[in-house]
Amino acid sequence: MKTLEREHLSRVAALGCMVCRRIYGPHDPGPVEIHHKRAGTGAGRRSSHFDAFGLCIEHHRGNTGVHGLGTKGFVKHYGFDEANLLQDVRDLLG
Description:
Blueprint: H1 3-14, H2 18-24, E1 33-36, E2 52-55, H3 57-61, H4 66-78, H5 82-93
Antiparallel strand pairs: 1-2
């Protein structure tokens, strides 16, 4: 991984979980896992490190997370999708 990508992912992680941020508003972020946007990628392929956002463990791979619910189930449950969360990151990072 290139230094620029590492620095970007570090800034993304510092924002905290983007789902929690949408639900609870700005707050002290806890630990996150980096999630790479799945929509628009082929099977078994990961999107760019610049198309990633932070998710807490529950919202990443828990029962109510993007991997637990699946991409379509996630949208149905929350009313927003990965593209919305990625745009939130881009807005916050400028």
